[in-house]
Amino acid sequence: MKQKILAGCLLVIASVAVTSAFAEQALVAVAANFIPPFREIAMEFEKSTGHQLQVAGGSSGNFYSQIKNGAPFDVFFSADNARPKKLEDEGLGVKDTRFTYAIGRLVLWSPNDVLVKGEETLRSKKFKRLTIANPKTAPYGVAAMQTLQTLELWESVQPQIVMGESIGQTMGFIESGNAQLGFVALSQVMDPKVKGKGSRWDVPTNLHEPIKQDVILLTKGKDNSAAKALLEFMSSLQARTIIERYGYELK
């Protein structure tokens, strides 16, 4: 009996050793809007596979520039579909690995419970500062600019606009009080730390172009088993459930 128990223990130890031997680490660039759900996805992924992820958050435009200049990322989760396609065309992304992992939603949000009531809040201009992400580096900034242009408010609100380098910095401006309200990602206000606080307007999708967010395996990660496993994991029920819970649509 003791021999059987010992054999069973050795089998378990051997199994763990094999799993560890094949585990790898991947360096992942993640657009700032997707950081809240990606924290949860990364935890589930590491628990399920044994692989480890190092995650950097920032603006898609800055990540694109960094990757072009040799930054050692294995996977890139962009907030748009244009930059991953460019990287694929330029030979910096692995062909046929690019896909849309989420479709984002833009919201106008304020920590003030009564400030945001809809587009009339923007028209009233009863605020000192409105923050948006820089359209040159952040796709959510493009969507915010398009929304204001469609509402014919882009020119008139210019003196009140404060630009963040990324949607993460934009959220930071609102939370710190440097802006009373701003255009951010729905996923950011669905973060458990923020959810249920303040007031928001879910921007109608007909006011801006769709925010299709693509991921791509970068050439540095083409032989990295953790990077390839992560892309596969994004199609799992676990990952998709988390993505939807943060207010994204799935393709």
Provide a descriptive summary of the structure in words.
The chain has 251 residues and is an alpha/beta fold. The protein folds into two domains: 2-103 and 211-245, D-Maltodextrin-Binding Protein, domain 2 (3-Layer(aba) Sandwich); 105-207, Periplasmic binding protein-like II (D-Maltodextrin-Binding Protein, domain 2). It has ten helices and ten strands. It has helices at 2-22, 35-49, 60-68, 82-89, 119-124, 139-150, 167-176, 186-189, 225-233, 237-245; strands at residues 25-31, 52-58, 75-77, 99-104, 106-110, 130-133, 161-164, 181-185, 199-202, 211-217. Helix 6 (139-150) links the parallel strand 6 and strand 7. Helix 2 runs antiparallel to helix 10.
* Residues in β-strands, percent: 15-25%
Which secondary-structure class do the elements indicate?
alpha/beta
Q: Portion of residues in helices?
A: 40-55%
Give me the count of strands.
10
Main pleated-sheet profile:
5 strands, mixed
CATH topology of the largest domain: D-Maltodextrin-Binding Protein, domain 2
* CATH homologous superfamily designation of the largest domain: Periplasmic binding protein-like II
What is the CATH C level class of the largest domain, in words?
Alpha Beta
Q: Count up the domains.
A: 2
Whole-Å distance between the termini? Answer: 54 Å
Give the count of helical stretches. Answer: 10
Tell me, what's the shape?
globular
What average pLDDT do the residues reach? Answer: 92
Q: In angstroms, what is the radius of gyration? A: 21 Å
Low-confidence stretches: 1-21
CATH architecture of the largest domain: 3-Layer(aba) Sandwich
- In N-to-C order, the SSE pattern is HEHEHEHEEHEHEHEHEEHH
Query: Major sheet: order of its strands?
Result: 2-1-3-10-4
